[in-house]
Design a protein that fits this description.
Zinc Finger, Delta Prime, domain 3; globular; single chain; 3 domains; Helicase, Ruva Protein, domain 3; five-stranded parallel sheet; Rossmann fold; 58% helix; alpha/beta; 17 helices
Length: 342
């Protein structure tokens, strides 16, 4: 079954699954998930931990041997298998299926790696392991979830504080939870057992937020103009190449246009072919319903012009242009405002 990160501790208290899958692109979440599993395993007798990495030189027979060899120091052993690519390959898939069909109560297998897509999640080895155990996706928390996580870290120190301090820390480190944990640890050294105010927080916390173009597109789909501007500002400060954003916007326009045409002709939408998964299908459908043929044309023409300009010249403020383009997708009427590329 699939578990959210905040469900893992309570689930471990009820008993551990023999197979645990931890995948995601958020390092701090991955570290926390592994620590929770390690701690829970140790409490029930898994004293020995063995770490393996399935890189290009890895022999999968090593994993078979590890699961079948009795430890000299403990009756139970925790085996952690790192998949750097998120994919075990043909031989690895066969090996994992062989292991899951013959589980041992004295072996706990934890497999972890980077963020994986539906292509991996739909494979036989992954589905079989998930059905026999747990899958914990690790992704960056946002908004209220991120603030709640920061609040829990501060409470554990303990540090008493106010909501504005928590919001400031979350905003300063959004998209970079590892940095957020480090900033909270620093506050713990300075103010443990004390009450923290916003002045002290602003003086101590360093701006370390990190964002990706994928988060920008997710925000665009929701129509949150204020957050769009914020993300673009941060992406610019991180030195993101503007053409990457242009490419992403063109791709989203094409996806939205295809959905619109399929709906207008009464055809079935093949979401998998469009690479739009379940949790985002509603966002695409809603956004398409707000678009008119004229709006599609306006955005297409604006993207075409900007793409040409970016490839053939160097605009003075490229992210101002990108902001204008992003806002064309939102309910805010900016299409009537002239925008030069000088």
């Amino acid at each position: 079954m699939q578990l959210r990160q905040n469900q893992l501790t309570s689930q471990c208290q009820k008993g551990l699954a023999s197979f645990i899958l931890i995948f995601g692109d958020e390092p701090q979440q991955t570290i926390e998930a592994l620590d929770i599993v390690r701690s829970a395993a140790k409490k029930i007798g898994f004293e020995e931990r063995q770490s393996l990495t399935a890189d290009g030189d890895f022999e999968w027979s090593t994993l078979i041997d590890a699961t079948q060899t009795m430890s000299l120091f403990s009756d139970k052993q925790l085996i952690e298998l790192h998949l750097p690519t998120g994919k075990p390959g043909k031989e690895g898939s066969k090996t994992l299926l062989e292991i899951v069909t013959n589980p041992s109560p004295d072996v706990l297998l934890v497999i972890y790696g980077p963020r994986i897509g539906k292509d991996v999640q739909n494979t036989k080895w992954f589905k079989t392991l998930q059905e026999a155990g747990w899958f914990i996706p690790c992704y960056a928390l946002e908004g209220r979830d991120l603030e709640n996580w920061v609040a829990q870290l501060l409470k554990a120190i303990p540090i008493n504080t106010t909501d504005d301090c928590i919001a400031f820390i979350a905003d300063a480190c959004e998209g970079n939870m590892l940095a957020a944990k480090q900033e909270v640890d620093k506050l713990g050294l300075l103010y443990a057992g004390q009450t923290l105010d916003i002045t002290q927080t602003k003086a101590a916390v360093v701006e370390q937020s990190r964002f990706t173009v994928y988060q920008l597109i997710d925000t665009l789909l929701t129509g949150d103009a204020q957050r769009l501007v914020k993300l673009l500002y941060r992406l610019e400060s991180e030195g993101l190449e503007p053409n990457i954003v242009i490419w992403a916007l063109i791709k989203e326009w094409e996806t939205l246009y295809q959905i619109d045409q399929l709906q207008r002709t009464g055809q079935r939408i093949n979401w998998a072919a469009l690479r739009v998964w379940g949790n985002k299908q509603g966002l695409y459908t809603k956004l398409v319903s707000d678009f008119t043929p004229q709006r599609f044309s306006e955005i297409r023409d604006a993207l075409k012009e900007a793409d040409f300009q970016f490839k053939n010249s160097t605009p003075v403020r490229p992210f101002v242009i990108l902001c204008h383009l992003c806002l064309l997708f939102t309910p805010y009427a900016v299409s009537g405002f002239p925008l030069t590329h000088e």
